[in-house]
């Protein structure tokens, strides 16, 4: 039943106004809809992103959302020009070089939004 349904990501923000500005200025996303529950963004597919205000924002230490990109260096370069900082990791099972980790499925990089949520770019092999 669910295999054919569209999904959407739900991300917390401790300051919805700050998050909305960050997603516009850093990622180039404009809200599709503003509602009482938060701000919703459209992506290049039917998938959506909903950002809502809560005191729990930034408390998760895992990847909250990932974009599949055709060229990770190009995507990272565009985001770096806007001030996005990519994480570097060096521990068993995950080591980045210039912000990129490589494994059999492809290459990935991580950054945090204004609210501390971990976001990811992935270029599939």
UniProtKB/TrEMBL annotation:
InterPro entries: Glyas_Bleomycin-R_OHBP_Dase, Glyas_Fos-R_dOase_dom, VOC_core. It comes from Leifsonia williamsii. Residues 5-124 form the VOC domain. It holds the Pfam family Glyoxalase. This is VOC family protein. Signal peptide: none annotated.
């Amino acid at each position: 039943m669910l295999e054919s349904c569209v999904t959407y990501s739900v991300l917390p923000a401790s300051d919805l106004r700050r998050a909305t500005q960050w997603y516009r200025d850093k990622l180039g996303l404009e809200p599709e809809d503003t509602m009482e529950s938060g701000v919703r963004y459209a992506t290049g597919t039917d998938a959506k992103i909903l950002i809502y205000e809560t005191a729990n924002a930034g408390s998760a230490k895992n990847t909250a959302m990932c974009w599949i990109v055709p060229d990770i260096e190009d995507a990272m370069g565009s985001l770096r020009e806007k001030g996005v900082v990519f994480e570097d990791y060096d521990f068993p099972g995950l080591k980045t070089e210039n912000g990129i980790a490589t494994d059999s499925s492809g290459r990935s990089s991580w950054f945090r939004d204004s609210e501390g949520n971990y976001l990811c770019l992935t270029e599939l092999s």
